[in-house]
Amino acid sequence: MFDKRKLSNLVEENQAELLDLTAKLLQIPSENPLGDTTEITKFIVGYLEKNQIPVKTYEPDPKRFNILASIGPENGKTLIYCGHSDTVPVGDLEKWDFSPFSGEIKEGYMLGRGASDMKAGLAGLIFSMVLLKRYEVPLAGKLVLAIVPDEESGGDFGVPWLLDQGLVKGDGCLIAEPSSELNPTIGQKGSCWFKLTVNGIPGHGSLSPFLGRSAIFDAVKAIEKICQVTNWEITPPDDLIELLNVSNRYLELNERSETRGVFEKITCNIGTIHGGTSANVVADKCVVAIDCRLPFGITNEEVMTRVRQMLDQLDIDYQIESFGFKSSANFTPAEDPICQAIVENITEVLDETAYGVLQWACSDARHFREHQIPVLQYGPAELETIHGFNEKVKIEQIINCGKVYTLAAVDYFNKVNGGKNEFN
């Protein structure tokens, strides 16, 4: 029989292996784009197989590999532990204070691209499965590890592909995406990415605005209209009011009071603008990429309809095309067994009260919810460094998350099996 103290001690005793695994993942570049996960996949597969865990890989797109592994009996409930092996690009190397592929430990932090998003969390999931297998911890169900290659580029060949192919099924899921230490994310805003193309009439730049019609000028008008989406009044469903209040209090407690209300409003980011061919030519085309995040109470389709209605008032020649992330706001009830298993074990490991909150962005969690699989996100992170230069994560958080993952995996089966698991 394994109790919680024994499992927690096993993580402590093997923490050097967890940290070494994290460092090795950081030392393998897996930037997306380009999206090549060949090398990191080979390493992960080798580590799992060395620990007597069978692995299957799938390559739905060249050099993008999904990894599936499982332990525990086939009968009973299935819990999915999910992570992504890709990272965003490192960007300008001169702006880093250390090598983004160092995996170095310094002043209590693990350093490198993906340290927070999300190779430390991914290492924790892999390590937890290996630990449970190595010490023959009894599981009253199947624990599945799903590692996907392209979360940072929209995820078409990762989680949704696995779910649509029927390769992954489950009754609950944890994604090791970065979060705060005490607050896993149990819901998230929707996403509406679209590309606006504005057409103009070319002419000699010396005669503008007398001749020609600038696509850039018209695009500016369109952008001013589109940015008004943040001012729309949107009424959230009644059953989300408490979760919204809790999430706003979380923002204030974590020194993000300036973002209060972000969960109730549409956000709008003008990401890129490409227009014209030369300074002395009236621009005949301007293309704008826009990222809107949607609160509960409005759908992607409703936003696009209203945006088109606004742009139709401008008398401009335009087209709109959706791309990238597309979803409505979604959540998992805090009472679900997977949420309880994670939250309760965070509270136990850290000896502080944990609770779930909303996420202002979106992730692969939406795909699991679309397939009626309850899901939440919890992972080690130095949130301010995610996607930025000098990304890092606290060593202590890596170890604590390793404990939470290991304890929660067993505790989850205890909950869904009515207390029949040998776990106290």
How would you describe what is shown here?
With 424 residues, this protein is of the alpha/beta class. It has two domains: 4-188 and 329-416, Zn peptidases (Aminopeptidase, 3-Layer(aba) Sandwich); 190-252 and 260-325, Alpha-Beta Plaits, CATH 3.30.70.360. The chain is built from eleven helices and 16 strands. β4 (105-106) and β5 (109-111) form a beta hairpin. The radius of gyration is 23 Å and the shape is globular. This is Probable succinyl-diaminopimelate desuccinylase. Belongs to the peptidase M20A family. It comes from Enterococcus alishanensis. Residues 186-316 form the Peptidase M20 dimerisation domain.
> At the fourth CATH level, what is the homologous superfamily of the largest domain?
Zn peptidases
- What characteristic shape results from the CA principal axes? globular
Q: How do the strands line up in the largest sheet? A: 1-2-6-3-7-15
Strand content: 15-25%
Low-confidence stretches: none
Distance between the termini: 9 Å
Give the number of helices: 11
